[in-house]
Amino acid sequence: MKKVIIIGGGISGLCSAYYLAKEGHAVTVLDQSDISTGASFINAGYLTPSHFIPLAAPGIITQGIKWMFNSSSPFYIKPRLDLDFFKWVWLFKKSTTKLNVEKSIPVLKELNLKSQHLFEEMLASLDFNFYYEKKGVLMAFSNTKSEAEEHEIAHRALKEGLDVTMLNKEELQKIQPVLSDNVIGAAHYKCDSHMTPNHFMVTLKNWLKNNGVTFKVNQEVKDFTAKNNQIVSVTTQTDTFEADDFVLVQWQLDITFSFKIKFKSAYSRR
Fold first, then answer.
1. pTM (two decimals)
2. Residues 50 and 118 in one domain
């Protein structure tokens, strides 16, 4: 049995704690909040193997520039003079190639499928209960240009072995009669599923507490101590915690030493 500290109590951190606790390790979760709010609680809860096209795709920079100056767009970033920001944009642009997209597709597909499978395994284990449903996701379109794009993606999804069906307007209305008359069709990704993140996070957290996982909330990590190129302790504003292994989740800190992370996690991108 190892003593493991997880820094970050979002969905990745709690799922890591779940698997480590199941393996019999002594787990402590540190978080700067009380783990009751944040993106892990309020995201859409989609488990989407259909989302296998990376964001860094050809044409996204042009579209992204348009979105950046629209505060209601899905990619709004407040314009500012920031060297790090422009450096990130440049590196992002270099990645938006057809070759990189082709390399990323099988990786993203497998990541999403495995994530979905892990949620289904959790539910089947009966360790704790949460809402899960596999009705799929509709990618609707209202013009011929979008229709052609969705057909292309759906064709690639079929090639990747995913379950997807193209629906015309009449077929779509039978499934979703509340949609606008402007919608002319949709791709129905039956491979996709969804759950309720806020309920999942609460029930998982309760299971972890009942199974020996310690939570140290409102603890902001300030520093690490390393020996022989390994992290041996972490310091917050009030305490120092020692452990055999550390899992850092969504952590932003420049550190000049390496460390081992044993990490198995279920993750929902949406």
1. 0.79
2. yes
